[in-house]
Amino acid sequence: MVLITKSIFYSLSSLIYKTMKTKDKELLRGGQFLVKETKCEDVFTPEDFSEEQVMMRDAVIEFNDREVIPYKDRFEAKDYALTEACMHKAGELGFLGVSVPEAYGGLGMGFVSTMLVCDYISSGTGSFSTAFGAHTGIGTMPITLYGTEAQKLKYVPKLASGEWIGAYCLTEPGAGSDANSGKTTATLSDDGKCYKINGQKMWISNAGFCKLFIVFARIEDDKYITGFIIENDSENGITLGEEEHKLGIHSSSTRQVFFSDCVVPVENMLSERGNGFKIAMNALNIGRIKLAAACLDSQRRVTSLGVQYANERKQFKTPLSDFGAIKSKIAEMATNTYAGESACYRAAKDIEDRIALRVAAGNSHHEAELKGVEEYAIECSILKVAVSEDIQNCSDEGIQIFGGMGFSVETPMEAAWRDARITRIYEGTNEINRMLSVGMLVKKAMKGHVDLLGPATAVADELMGIPSFETPDYSELFSEEKEMIAKLKKVFLMIAGAAVQKFGAELEEHQQILMAASDILIEIYLAESAILRAEKSAKRFGEEDQKGQMAMARLYLYNAVDIVIKNGKEVIVSFAEGDEQRMMLMGLKRFTKYTNQPNVVALRNTIAEILKKENKYCF
Ligand SMILES: Cc1cc2nc3c(=O)[nH]c(=O)nc-3n(C[C@H](O)[C@H](O)[C@H](O)COP(=O)(O)OP(=O)(O)OC[C@H]3O[C@@H](n4cnc5c(N)ncnc54)[C@H](O)[C@@H]3O)c2cc1C
Fold first, then answer.
1. What per-residue confidence (pLDDT) applies to 8?
2. Residue 518 · residue 428 · CB < 8 Å
């Protein structure tokens, strides 16, 4: 019995295996992490920030500490004017133009720096974080990436400086996840000089104080929507709904926007007719990885606040932080934060390097950025899902550490928890992103961009063979962990290969299988990123010095293995039967087996003791 037939993948297309090199580092294509080994020297980590990046980070932290965090109460009281004022201040300091080319009034910094600003500016309140993300990401970026020179010169400097705030109008009452199904229309005038826009958009962030909308509308019966740049002018057929009353992000302005015979000059069309869906999706790709970054510093802060409270608060004459139950929470919160950071900055640098390669090959900067991010769309979806769920869990455990006080609006945990909730919904829901991550990987294999066939066939052959009974040599740092990651990749290949074989093009109909496969993919990327970062740090700074990072990487992997077992089993028992099922379950067992089980309690205690002593998240 062959679980994974060769024909299914051979028929997909010619298998061109392409890798590119930057300097002496092999730069993997998006999704290739699954079938290629990455060396720790080849991953970028937060420990690798340049002096300039550290200075930028410190400036952003200082801004957040000064302008945002002290005003938590006002943000919770729906002070939209405060959010707007903060946006203008962020613009004056250049933070809104970090990724905007210098020619259009920005700082023209690289992708890692852009991520870094999103990361550290976002932790004060979800309200400002959302305003910042909507403006810099989906509000400004479509123009820098797709605008004509005239459009860029006219609009981008105003957006980069914060003089104008931008918003993005894609969602409609009947068109959410199915974004191309919008009913807003764009009708060309008889003289061919302008379009009239009619329709209703909803859930539009920054609508209450923006000066510019990126709007998607359909021309005639076009298959795909078209993008437009529309200035906010109440005398030009634009009206706003009332502010939405939301669970969280209270001071983020969210309104419906109505267009009634709104006149837009033809020169304000973004890119070409019918290109809107592509613009929307590419903007979301970039938005997704930035949203992941935007959840990181919240996790750091929530973890630090949890540790500080646990150190101060005594019950049974003992600080909470001395209780094993609380240590476990602190350790898990820190570990997930660490893994998220590791994966985000690893992907960010890969994107930055890919952009540099494309620029060197003659692409314009905006083409290079588009293609560079598109290449890593799988990783962008993985990160969006993983980090948005981590901040939710982190703030939930934060509330638990605070006990009753965690439930009170007087403490920061309550707002952090409510604000975190939206991150699983916007920029593509986590369900959509889970399915996209696996779907895009299968498509890449079909196009021959990632060779899944060779490795999947090798796994099938290995399953048929007799396992080695030799005692492995794990004397090298992290060798057992790296072997485990290689085995988890085999689990994914075994399952995905069998699913593709069984369902073919109808795989996308089997959403529960895609979701489970996606959870495995996510854990592999996050666990590998954590292990590689810890290995790099241990080699650079010494194992004794890095025992916290090493323990977090090991703990993350241990948890990841359990998630892989659960999801792998779920998939196997759902679509395989008889011998095939038995064989795959045996494979799952073999590929998730530790030779030396880590002492999980000891790992958690090591991590928690470090945080307790430092009184904060300190990695
Ligand atoms: C506070 C806030 C701010 C926002 N800001 C903006 C903004 O600035 N601009 C903008 O354009 N939009 C914005 N949105 C809209 C947001 O992007 C959408 O809410 C999101 O894309 C989901 O669409 P929906 O709400 O219509 O949910 P639906 O698409 O109706 O989805 C409902 C549920 O069904 C699931 N689902 C949907 N389709 C499928 C499928 N094919 N298979 C399986 N499950 C599916 C979803 O995952 C979700 O769980 C914002 C939303 C909120 C709440």
1. 37
2. no
Whether the CB-CB separation of 46 and 539 falls below 8 Å is answered with no
> Residue whose CA is closest, atom 13 of ligand 1?
203
Look over the chain and give the mean of its residue pLDDT values, rounded to a whole number. Answer: 94
User: Do the strands 20-22 and 166-169 form a parallel or antiparallel pair, or are they unpaired?
Assistant: unpaired
Residue with the smallest CA separation from ligand 1 atom 25 is: 176
Note the pLDDT of residue 21. 47
* 427 catalytically annotated: yes
Alpha carbons 613 and 619: distance in angstroms, whole number = 13
Give the atom of ligand 1 at the shortest distance from the alpha carbon of 430: 47
Q: Which of 397, 427, 480, 523 is catalytic?
A: 427
The model's pLDDT over 252-287, given as tens digits with 9 standing for 90+, comes to 999 999 999 999 999 999 999 999 999 999 988 899
Quick check: helix, strand or coil at residue 299? Answer: helix
Mean of pLDDT values over 483-496: 97
Write out the H or E segment, with its range, that includes residue 65.
none
Question: Which of 141, 171, 178 has most ligand 1 atoms within 8 Å of its beta carbon, as the pocket-test mutant?
Answer: 171
Residues whose beta carbon lies within 6 Å of some atom of ligand 1: 134, 168-171, 176-177, 203-205, 246, 254, 422, 425-426, 429, 431-432, 511
CB 321 within 8 A of CB 327: yes
| Rounded (5°) CA angle 121-123-125 | 105
1: pLDDT strictly greater than 60 = no
The β-bridge partners of 200 are 258
Phi and psi at 250, nearest 5°, equal -60, -35
